[in-house]
Amino acid sequence: MGFDQFGIVITNRCTAACKFCGWRCSPKNHGVIELNMAKDAIDQAVSLGLTRRLGLTGGEAFLYPDLVRDILKYGRKKGYKVCSIATNGFWGGWSDEKIDAVLESLEDCCDLISFSYDSFHAEYIPEESIWHAAESAGRHGIKFHISVADVKGERGAGPFLASLSEKALKRSYDFYPLQQIGNAMDMPEEMFCRDLTREEVSCKGFGLFTLLYDGRVFPCCNPGIFDTDLYMGNIKETSLKDMLESSDVFKYMRLLCNKDYYRRLIIRAEETGLINVPEKVVSGCEICHWMFRDKKIADQIYPMLKELYQEMIVHNFLCKKEGE
Ligand code: SF4
Ligand code: SF4
């Protein structure tokens, strides 16, 4: 399995403080990545072959349009084929003049803008802002799409889209089930779309790295993982190459991405009373969050992971030998 995507969370600051924010971003946060660190990380990622997709996110990336431009231009120069930005679209409230100036500077280095918009974002971002920002992106030749978080009940994707203006009918959307992480941990259980059995879930993170504004590198981009110590190292201290070669977390990702072994890990964690998995869950990431968010639980999970990982390696080795 190869690497495909390098994500950079440039800030934990946001214009909004959504009730469901998986990473508790808000205007009160002030973490921002240094440009030189982002450039150095891109150099390292490129030397490891991560040159297909570069994605910037936050918090709210458009709070720092010059930084976004400089990072994406650098990424493009270094060979990234698809460069994208995730945003809440607040900047659709800017004047046309300001929007055009920013988007013009991104024309040659940004292929896609991904808007997050749903009943939770709508508490902070007026609908007109989204359409204004999206139409402006289109005018500058930048593709866009809209991601909608889904929950059960009246705040779900269906009722929300139905409440929007006619303009909304002309757009297409991606839907994703909301996870009970971050601020969403305070939301009632019954709101979450727990539709998958444990047999159906696994980790889908393999193949990408995410660099946080503070230098920590995670092996996926799920916001829940930023609440855990499942990070591979800090780029201020360790190179990406060394992280890849020596990080246990990276090794364990191979196990989490294997459905059978992930299920066995879940069963072991349950049998020892560390977690209690309901019959149905939102995703494999939700279970991952239960296993690794609390350090005391995670410290007991790691030895199980290690044992299963060793078993998996031997099994894979024997299968390979038989196939020779
Ligand atoms: S969900 Fe998005 S828009 Fe809302 S606070 Fe978090 S980062 Fe900001
Ligand atoms: S299962 Fe865990 S490691 Fe895998 S993508 Fe989800 S949060 Fe990341």
Could you give a short description of this structure?
With 324 residues, the chain is α/β, with parallel strands linked by helices. The chain has helices at 35-47, 65-77, 96-106, 127-139, 157-163, 240-246, 248-256, 259-271, 284-292, 295-323, and strands at residues 5-9, 53-57, 82-87, 112-116, 143-150, 173-177, 196-197, 208-212, 216-218, 233-234, 280-281.
Structural account:
By secondary structure, the chain is α/β, with parallel strands linked by helices. 38% of the residues lie in helices and 15% in strands. The protein contains 10 helices and 11 strands. It has helices spanning 35-47, 65-77, 96-106, 127-139, 157-163, 240-246, 248-256, 259-271, 284-292, 295-323, and strands at residues 5-9, 53-57, 82-87, 112-116, 143-150, 173-177, 196-197, 208-212, 216-218, 233-234, 280-281. The strands form 2 sheets. A 9-stranded mixed β-sheet has the order 6-5-4-3-2-1-8-9-10. A two-stranded antiparallel ribbon has the order 7-11. β4, α4 and β5 form a beta-alpha-beta unit. The radius of gyration is 20 Å and the shape is globular. The model has no long low-confidence stretch (mean pLDDT 94).
